[in-house]
Write a structure and sequence with these properties.
This protein is of the alpha+beta class and 71 residues long. The protein is 18% helix and 37% strand.
């Protein structure tokens, strides 16, 4: 199961999906969140990650980080 983790005001809700069955739903979530300004990153292991500009159905975990706002 692949997981999309969204860092937001409620914590870090996780959305799990089977890449073969629910990739379309996960891709729509990816487009929606990045459209709202979230940065998507694929975890690579050992504390490393890679920023994603497009949906990657092979990513085990995708983390969505909100845009920082200055004050």
């Amino acid at each position: 199961m692949a997981t999309q983790i969204v860092m937001d005001h409620s914590g870090d809700p996780r959305h799990q999906f089977d890449a073969t069955d629910a990739a379309a739903v996960a891709e729509e979530r990816f487009k929606m969140l990045t459209g709202f300004g979230f940065t998507a990153a694929k975890r690579l292991g050992d504390g490393k990650s890679e920023v994603l500009k497009t949906f990657d159905p092979t990513a085990e975990e995708t983390l969505f980080i909100p845009r920082l706002k200055g004050g």
